[in-house]
Design brief:
alpha+beta, 1 helix
Length: about 60
């Protein structure tokens, strides 16, 4: 079982909450806490992609 997903150079963890019946995760390997969630794998992938894009857009240009 693979418990992660990738988008660009970013990796997101994948977890399931039986209590809340939701998939959730966070972007790994960064110094910020960026989370995402979805009710299905498709929703989780979309939320992860949006979280990465939002995170990248807020980073200062170097």
């Amino acid at each position: 079982m693979i418990d992660r997903m990738e988008y660009g150079e970013f990796v997101g963890s994948v977890h399931y909450s039986a209590k809340d019946d939701v998939l959730f995760g966070k972007i790994e390997g960064i110094n910020d806490l960026i989370t995402f969630e979805g009710g299905s794998v498709k929703e989780l992938r979309k939320a992860f992609k949006e979280a990465v894009e939002d995170y990248v857009s807020l980073q200062p240009l170097t």
